[in-house]
TrEMBL record, chain A:
Transmembrane portions of the chain: 36-56, 322-343
Pfam families linked to this entry: CDC50
Main subcellular location: membrane
InterPro entries per UniProt: CDC50/LEM3_fam
Protein name, as recorded: Cell cycle control protein 50C
Keywords, comma-separated and alphabetical: Membrane, Transmembrane, Transmembrane helix
TrEMBL record, chain B:
Nucleotide-binding listed as a keyword: yes
Name of the featured protein: Phospholipid-transporting ATPase
GO BP, one annotated term: Golgi organization
Lineage of the organism: Eukaryota, Metazoa, Chordata, Craniata, Vertebrata
Region ranges (Disordered): 1170-1225
Chain ranges passing through the membrane: 72-89, 95-113, 296-318, 338-364, 892-912, 924-945, 975-1001, 1013-1032, 1039-1059, 1086-1108
């Protein structure tokens, strides 16, 4: 307590403050029928409206999945990839699919993996963000999180990017062709850049500084590529030299580890500049030519291409609308029960029985 | 000054165990102490403790290591240290080191800061005590020295009203015969002064400094010990031996009074003084919630280990079936590729992750809450007693919530229920009552503080504190009505009071019993001033005229006679016998002519008794000279006879006390403390059983029982157990039990006998069915038998069937035994309240000890857990503070467990998605800060400020106290409910976002179903859900609650964005890997849709359940709450507290509380010597006394004087009763 200076007759009397006397002005709400029942009804209504809105939105989105793990001509590649010694042998295959009607608007192409556990603790930890932010020191000395054998190769050269996550990067590539019935087949143009989060592309991942005096390859000198990679990190995108190194969009997207074993990651966005695709993806037959590199048969995984449009709340998502509608229904049932119980019993509780 | 030192003692005593520990290390066991006066060199050889007191634990250098060492001795802290070590193993570490170390450091830091401030104040007060000045004789001159520089063997000079600096051997003093007076209140709680006398050889040294400096005696004495009343030693000086005892010692802690100066030789200094040795360790008390909490924490550990095992098994299976196929991507080390070993590691990893179910902040938060509640008790103005400037004090900060669970109160009587002040209240003289006040219509007026008092200014010798309201009595005196005069003459003559006259007209009476003091004081004010006595005479100033009576005989009081008489010869030569005594006794010895008067007086006595007053009948008799002479001869003969003296005297007394003429009766009020009957009534309504344990006699105790409304006429039966043997007691108890059971047995009469006994054995159920009211009064000697092993069960049974239990004539040890008995048999929370040294054992034994900081000194307060000045504050302490504390603590714990389960178990559900790899759901920083930053303050403010029902309603509806006694608000079931609630919440918190995120993308098509966005979404939902939940749990939203709840949310978002900002990432890229996640996910509508849905689904079921409970099946609390809100809307109402009416019409025929044999002392003149020889210097006559006493108004001082002087309280002597004593009884 506060030390009292005075020694008068009432010197030890406690202060008469609202705080010390526990008389602070306060609001004491309580759960009365007048507040609770309307809240329930209103919440039920809100959930119902949201649910309906979401249902309508989801109905207007389109999603198409093409599983190419071992379908069509990919069967051959699938068998080939069963043996790790064939890693250097390239394998191309083709998968066909049909779009029944025009997909309006922006169309997104994802690659999907099933049963791939990007969320294992030791897998997730096996990366070095300090290295991928382009720090010279970390480039040559990968963090201890990139546990062996993903930090240095057999001859002791540091790996960049190090760690299990980068090592297992998805390396299939797709070429999508449109086959209109009355015209020549056309390449479906995709944006392969600008498909990662802005913060990832610009803050979280950066190349080691080149000072405009030497090339990216020189900047990565003294490091080697990850064990499973076919090409070094500065040579990931041969079509666009600016999309190389740690800031390669595919690498960035892969490095953002999925929360669940079944996931899809953005591969590209339909470019709507050309005449054929300005409105979206027209109806008709399509084929995907796949450079089949990524082995999934070890872990009984599946690979797929997902073509989808997005709405204001994301892609095609059936869970949320249903969840909202169910919640709305449950709240409505609860509020009816509450109301009836209140009408039957509640009045009694009002009376003070002493 | 007094208070300051008292507080010093108190502080030291609290810290005693530590002091002992420090002190023991460097002192060898001392067999015998050699002290040579004025010879420091010699004394230093023995390295005795110096007079410096060190209660502080640490200094600047030792603080950190010592404090940390102490803190890690606590189990919880050690547990977290082990976790921290586990986290450093990379194979196991599922969380970064900082998730544990940050909370741990914060907890350690908070505790360390608290310890440091405590220690700082100890340093300061040590400093203050150590630097007190005293005059030390060094090298032949008196020099001022600090206390800490005083050494054993020094001679120091003390002056009046100074504290004694160390344990001293008194050498000489300013008073004749080397006498000196000390007040020992701080030492043993006795407020009366004690005399100490120096050896004649040393007292001759007087204040001759030169001779004192040459004084080179050697003292050989006992080693330091804690016996306050014992000292043995020998003084060797000039080839002579003098034996020393306690009567020559001045102990540290005493205060010198009424002695100008004295010199003393330091024998024990500093920590070796008896005061410091006497502090004793206090038992560490813990609350039932504490114990429950420990059990629960163990359960949680068990639960944690179970979850760990489940997940570890899951991991083993997963590794075998799925993980092994995945090795291509992971390339585990060889030893981790073993599935079973991987499961083993996973177990530890999950133990680390899930450790937050046993939150490190739980214990600290609970301590903080209790500390806060204690401060609220200290700050409560309604428990502050302004007359004595005493606020209530929570002396332990660990018991607060138990105040809301008390079922049994054990109360002392004198000084606790009563003020131990007797007030002459009414009288009946010659068939007319005086003392009531009537208004002009002839209605009786209630006497209050404001009722005008009778003006006694005609009497210069009056006692100014005496109050009387009925002026008709003074008029009668002024009219010189002979019987009224005779009445007061009797009161002025027939007693064993000793007068003190300090200055002219300043009379102080030393009465053996307060009753007598009150009567003589009354006579004094009505003009019959008892002024002085010698063994043969009594001088009374009758209406200003001195009249000296010859005192011929005192026919002393004893328990059988229940009366006392004096025989005096008036100045006119008349012989008179004045007698006062119990009415039943006296009425038998009246002259037949008195019948009519006896009848009316008897009616008046009934009336007085109905008001709970203590009554006495008065009678006189004119004696014949011849008869008296003859009787006197026989008396002399009888008093010299060797055998059956008592008996013979009794017969003689009986002989002359016949044919008395009745004068009237007096009624004395044994003043109850303010509000006692109301408090007792209120606590009884709260279903608290109040037992009175008193050292007083049966009759007095019963009388108080009636005036407190604990005993009533309409009770079915009052059982009095007063058997002297085990068998008798057993029979009485059995009879009592049967007569209680008897009528109720009929209720169950239709069942067979065996069934009946079953019902009886479950007496907790059965107790409720007893409608009739019974009371049990048990005597000390019977209690000794009843407490034996084979009778205690029946005692408990009977006592618990009775509404009221009064134990009288109990020893301090028995008080403790009774408390212990109830603790053992009823498993109920007990509270003991008392004010005297005789209550200490009981206060220490009970779960909660309350000390009344009252007249009998500080002993009870020192050993108590709570202290305040008035019994009536108990009501507020229990019904308001206790109830709130309990309510708050329970809600706090429920919420805390809920919160941590909701928070932690998300990891469990995620385990099934991430291959049981111990991947955390949340960001590590979130885990670090969740408990200590994001959610601690709202729940703390709820735990500190919440009020379900405000204080007025808490007091008005005492049955709101019931849930605490029944342990309803927090128990194992509640724990299960709230953990289950937490588990369900965690389930919803995980699976709704899971369902939504499994196929979600951002509205620009980019990724959002990654682990980091998922983590941010769940964390945000969690923070919002638990904030809404605490909002629901908060009944009383003060500004602080608002601030903390909204503030916590704001802080969460602020920290979230700060932790995921570019700046921090650029500095520590590996620590703040969540860069940008909050920005990229919280701008998405889907995330908010998920958060909203999660919140609704988590919260609404709870709202529905609460609503059903409060509105449709409300508890008493809910009803009162509703009522309170309804009233508030209507505006404040006049508060009408039920008035308790006393309905007793019991005749109290007892007033003498004093012992036999005092009359003899007076007639022999033995006790006159001191009085006459030191009239001017007698301790009490000192005018300095009053200013020296802290804050005490004059009236209490004088009361204490009248009550205590010269007469040691019966129970102060009984303080050290041992088991042997008890058995001997």
């Amino acid at each position: 307590g506060k030390k009292q200076a005075g020694t008068g007759p009432l010197s030890r009397r406690p202060d008469n403050s609202a705080f010390k006397q526990q008389r602070l002005p306060a609001w004491s709400p309580s759960l009365t029928a007048q507040t609770v029942l309307p809240t329930f009804y209103i919440l039920s209504l809100v959930c119902l409206l949201l649910g309906i809105w979401l249902v309508i939105t989801v109905e207007n989105t389109y999603q198409l999945k093409v599983d190419y793990t071992n379908s069509g001509s990919c069967e051959r590649c699938f068998e080939l990839r069963k043996n790790a010694t064939n890693a250097k042998i390239t394998c191309e295959c083709l998968v066909n699919f049909n779009v029944p009607k025009l997909i309006l608007g922006d169309v997104f192409f994802y690659y999907g993996l099933r049963n791939f556990h990007q969320n294992l603790r030791r897998y997730m930890d096996s990366r070095d963000d300090a290295q991928m932010v382009g720090r010279r020191k970390n480039l040559k000395t990968p963090s201890s999180y990139c546990a062996p054998p993903f930090d240095y190769d057999a001859s002791g050269v540091p790996i960049a990017p190090c760690g299990a996550v980068a090592n297992s990067m998805f390396n299939d590539s797709f070429i999508v062709m449109y086959h209109p019935t009355n015209a020549r087949s056309a390449l479906v143009p995709l944006y392969r850049k600008g498909i990662a989060w802005y913060t990832d592309k610009n803050v979280k991942f950066r190349n080691p500084p080149t000072n405009d005096t030497f090339s990216l390859q020189q900047a990565f000198e003294g490091t080697t590529q990850p064990l499973y990679w076919q090409r070094p990190v500065y040579d990931l995108d041969r079509s666009d030299p600016l999309n190389n190194g740690f800031i390669n969009d595919d690498l960035i997207i892969w490095m953002r580890e999925a929360a669940f074993p079944n996931f899809k990651k953005l591969y590209g966005i339909l470019s709507r500049v050309q005449g054929l695709f300005t409105e979206g993806l027209p109806a008709g037959n399509y084929s995907i030519s796949i450079n089949y590199n990524y082995p999934v048969e070890y872990f009984r995984g599946r690979k797929e291409v997902v073509i989808s449009t997005v709405s204001w709340f994301g892609g095609q998502n059936h869970f949320l609308p249903i969840a909202y509608l169910v919640t709305s229904g449950l709240i409505l049932v609860t509020s009816i029960v509450l109301t009836s119980v209140y009408v039957k019993v509640g009045k009694k509780g009002k009376n003070m029985e002493e | 000054m007094n208070g300051a030192c008292f507080r010093e003692t108190l502080r030291i005593c609290r810290r005693w165990p530590d002091i002992m520990a420090i002190w023991k290390e460097d002192v060898r066991v001392e067999e015998e102490r050699h002290v040579r006066a004025n010879d420091r060199e010699y004394n230093e050889r023995f390295s005795y403790a110096d007079n410096r007191i060190k209660t502080a634990k640490y200094n600047a250098f030792t603080f950190l290591p010592t404090n940390l060492f102490e803190q890690f001795q606590r189990v919880a802290n050690a547990y977290f240290l082990i976790l921290l070590i586990l986290q450093l193993i990379p194979e196991i570490s599922s969380l970064s080191w900082f998730t544990t170390i940050v909370p741990l450091v914060m907890v350690l830091a908070i505790t360390a800061v608290k310890d440091a401030t405590d220690d700082y104040f100890r340093h300061k007060s040590d400093q203050q005590v150590n630097t007190r000045q005293s005059q030390v004789l060094i090298k032949g001159t008196l020099q001022n020295e600090k206390w800490m520089n005083v050494r054993v063997g020094d001679i120091i000079k003390l002056e009046n009203n100074q504290f004694v600096a160390a344990d001293l051997l008194l050498l000489s003093s300013s008073e004749p015969y080397g006498l000196c007076y000390i007040e020992t209140a701080e030492l043993d709680g006795e407020t009366n002064l004690k005399v100490r006398q120096a050896l004649t050889v040393t007292s001759d040294l007087a204040n001759d400094v030169a001779r004192l400096a040459d004084f080179n005696a050697e003292v050989i004495c006992e080693p330091p010990n804690n016996k306050l009343d014992k000292f043995t030693g020998t003084l060797y000086w000039k080839d002579n031996k003098y034996s020393l005892d306690n009567e020559k010692m001045l102990l540290r802690g005493c205060v010198l009074r009424n002695t100008e100066w004295c010199f003393g030789l330091v024998i024990f200094a500093g920590l070796q003084t008896k005061l410091m040795q006497n502090c004793g360790s206090t038992k560490f008390k813990r609350t039932s919630i504490d114990r429950l909490m420990n059990t629960l924490v163990l359960w949680i550990f068990g639960f944690l280990i179970c979850m760990g095992i489940i997940l570890a098994i899951g991991n083993t299976i997963w590794e075998q079936r799925v993980g092994s196929e995945f090795w291509a991507y992971l390339q585990w080390n060889k030893f981790t590729s073993n599935a079973i070993f991987s499961g083993f590691l996973t177990f530890w990893s999950y133990v680390i992750i899930l450790n937050t179910v046993v939150p490190i902040s739980l214990y600290v938060s609970v301590e903080v809450l209790r500390l806060g509640h204690s401060y609220f008790i200290n700050w409560d103005r309604r428990m502050y007693y302004s007359h004595k400037d005493t606020p209530a004090e929570a002396r332990t900060t660990t018991l607060n919530e138990e105040l809301g669970q008390v079922e049994f109160i054990f109360s002392d009587k004198t000084g606790t229920l009563t003020q131990n002040i007797m007030v002459f209240n009414k009288c009946s003289i010659n068939g007319k009552t005086y003392g009531d006040v009537y208004d002009e219509f002839g209605h009786k007026v209630d006497i209050t503080e404001k009722t005008p008092c009778v003006d006694f200014s005609f009497n210069p010798l009056r006692d100014r504190k005496f109050r009387f309201h009925d002026s008709s009595l003074v008029e009668a005196i002024k009219l010189e009505e002979p019987l009224v005069q005779e009445f007061f003459r009797l009161l002025a003559l027939c007693h064993t009071v000793m007068p003190e006259e300090r200055n002219e007209g300043e009379l102080v009476y030393q009465a053996q019993s307060p009753d007598e003091g009150a009567l003589v004081t009354a006579a004094r004010n009505f003009g019959f001033v008892f002024r002085s006595r010698t063994p043969e005479t009594i001088t009374v100033y009758e209406m200003g005229q001195p009249v000296t009576y010859q005192l011929l005989a005192i026919l002393d009081f004893n328990n059988v006679r229940k009366r006392m008489s004096v025989i005096v010869r008036t100045p006119k030569g008349q012989l008179k016998l004045y007698s006062k005594g119990a009415d039943t006794i006296l009425f038998d010895r009246l002259d037949p002519s008195n019948d009519e008067l006896m009848y009316t007086t008897s009616e008046h006595l009934n009336e007085f008794a109905g008001e709970g007053l203590r009554t006495l009948a008065l009678a006189y008799k004119d004696l014949d000279e011849d008869v008296f002479d003859e009787w006197m001869k026989q008396l002399l003969f009888a008093s010299t006879s060797l055998d059956n003296r008592e008996e013979k005297l009794g017969v003689l007394y009986e002989e002359i006390e016949q044919g008395l003429m009745l004068l009237g009766a007096t009624a004395i009020e044994d003043k109850l403390q303010e509000g006692v009957p109301e408090t007792i009534a209120c606590l009884t309504l709260a279903n608290i059983k109040i037992w009175v344990l008193t050292g007083d006699k049966l009759e007095t105790a019963m009388n108080i029982g009636y005036s407190c409304n604990m005993l009533r006429d309409d009770m079915n039966e009052v059982f009095i157990i007063s058997g002297h043997t085990t068998l008798e007691v057993q029979r009485e108890l059995r009879a009592a039990k049967e007569s209680i059971m008897g009528p109720s047995r009929e209720i169950f009469s239709d069942g067979p006998d065996t069934e009946k006994t079953d019902i009886y054995s479950s007496d907790s159920v059965f107790e409720e069915t007893i409608i009739s009211e019974y009371a049990l009064i048990i005597n000390g000697h019977s209690l000794a038998h009843a407490l034996e092993a084979d009778l205690e069960q029946i005692l408990v049974d009977v006592a618990c069937l009775c509404k009221t239990v009064i134990c009288c004539r109990v020893t301090p040890l028995q008080k403790a035994l009774v408390v212990e008995l109830i603790k053992r048999h009823k498993r109920a929370v007990t509270l003991a309240i008392g004010d005297g040294a005789n209550d200490v054992s009981m206060i220490k034994t009970a779960h909660i000890g309350v000390g009344i900081s009252g007249q009998e000194g500080m002993q009870a307060v020192l050993s108590s857990d709570y202290s305040f000045a008035q019994f009536r504050y108990l009501q507020r302490l229990l019904l308001v503070h206790g109830r709130w504390s309990y309510h708050r603590m329970c809600n706090f714990l429920c919420y805390f467990f809920y919160k941590n389960f909701a928070f932690t178990l998300v990891h469990f559900w995620y385990g099934f998605q991430c291959g049981f790899s111990a991947q955390t759901v949340y960001d590590q920083w979130f885990i670090t800060l969740f408990n200590i930053v994001y959610t601690s303050l709202p729940v703390l403010s709820m735990g500190l400020f919440d009020q379900d029902v405000n204080e007025q309603y808490s007091l008005r509806y005492p049955n709101l106290y019931r849930p605490g006694q029944l342990n309803q608000l927090f128990n194992k079931r509640k724990f299960f409910t709230c953990t289950l609630h937490g588990i369900c919440t965690s389930f919803i918190l995980f699976f709704i976002p899971y369902g939504a995120f499994i196929s979600a993308v951002r509205d620009d098509g980019t990724q959002i179903s990654d682990q980091q966005a998922f983590a941010v979404t769940i964390a945000t939902s969690l923070v919002i859900v638990v904030s809404v939940q605490i909002g629901l749990d908060t009944n009383y939203w003060t500004a602080v609650n608002h601030f903390f709840i909204w503030g916590s949310l704001a802080v969460y978002f602020a920290i979230l964005f700060a932790m995921q900002s570019d700046g921090l990432f650029n500095i520590f890229p590996n620590q703040f890997t969540f860069i940008g996640t909050a920005r990229n996910s919280l701008d998405q509508k889907i995330v908010w849709l998920v958060i909203f849905l999660t919140t609704v689904v988590c919260i609404m079921p709870m709202v529905a359940v609460r609503f059903i409970k409060t509105d449709c099946y409300p508890t008493q609390t809910d009803k009162v709450r509703l009522l309170q809100q309804a009233t508030r809307r209507q505006g404040p109402q006049e508060q009408n507290l039920r008035r308790v009416r006393r309905t007793s019409s019991r005749r109290s025929a007892y007033a003498f509380a004093h012992q036999q044999g005092y009359g003899e002392l007076i007639t022999s003149g033995k006790n006159m010597k001191v009085t006459t020889s030191s009239t001017s210097t007698y301790p009490l006559s000192s005018p300095e006394r009053c200013p020296g006493t802290r804050g005490a108004p004059d009236e209490t001082t004088t009361e204490a004087e009248t009550n205590n002087t010269g007469f040691k309280r019966e129970f102060d002597q009984n303080q050290d009763v041992t088991v042997e004593d008890l058995e001997a009884r």
